[in-house]
Design goal:
Blueprint: E1 4-14, E2 19-24, E3 31-33, E4 51-59, E5 62-72, H1 79-89
Parallel strand pairs: 3-5
Antiparallel strand pairs: 1-2, 1-4, 2-3, 4-5
C-alpha cells in the first residue's frame, strides 16, 4: 500500500462518527476518512470547508485518507454548495464558460495562496 501526501477540502463530515469525504487537490476520486483501529493519535474534528493535509492510499478501489492534519478551519465553507451549483448548471455541457473542461469543476489551486505542489507518480 503506497501512501501519497495530499491536500484537500472536506466536503462532508460526521463529527460523531469521525467520518469525512474529502475533495483532493489532484481532482481525482474523492477520498474517504474513517479513523482506523490502529489510529494512535486523536484525529482532529473535521467540518465541511476545512483545508487539510493527509495521506491517501487506494484500498479495494477506494481512496482512503489517513493521518488528517487541519491546516485551516472553515477555509472554504461554501465549497460544497459551489460544487453542487456548478454541477447542476453544467451537467450537460462539455466545457465551462471559462474554457476549462467540465470535469474540472473548480480548480483547487484557486483556494491556495500559491500553486500546490504537483506530485509525480
Amino acid at each position: 500500500m503506497k501512501l501519497q501526501n495530499m491536500f484537500g477540502v472536506v466536503l462532508w463530515s460526521d463529527a460523531d462518527a469521525q467520518k469525512a469525504v474529502i475533495w483532493c487537490e489532484d481532482q481525482g476520486e474523492l477520498a474517504y476518512y474513517t479513523p482506523g483501529d490502529d489510529c494512535v493519535h486523536e484525529a482532529p474534528s473535521l467540518d465541511a470547508g476545512d483545508l487539510i493535509q493527509f495521506d491517501v492510499s487506494i484500498q479495494q478501489n477506494v481512496r482512503k485518507a489517513t493521518n488528517p492534519q487541519l491546516l485551516m478551519q472553515s477555509h472554504s465553507p461554501d465549497l460544497p454548495r459551489q460544487l453542487q451549483a456548478r454541477q447542476k448548471a453544467y451537467s450537460g455541457s462539455s466545457d465551462l464558460p471559462c474554457g476549462k473542461p467540465a470535469n474540472k469543476v473548480v480548480d483547487l489551486a484557486d483556494y491556495f495562496d500559491s500553486e500546490p505542489q504537483r506530485k509525480m507518480a
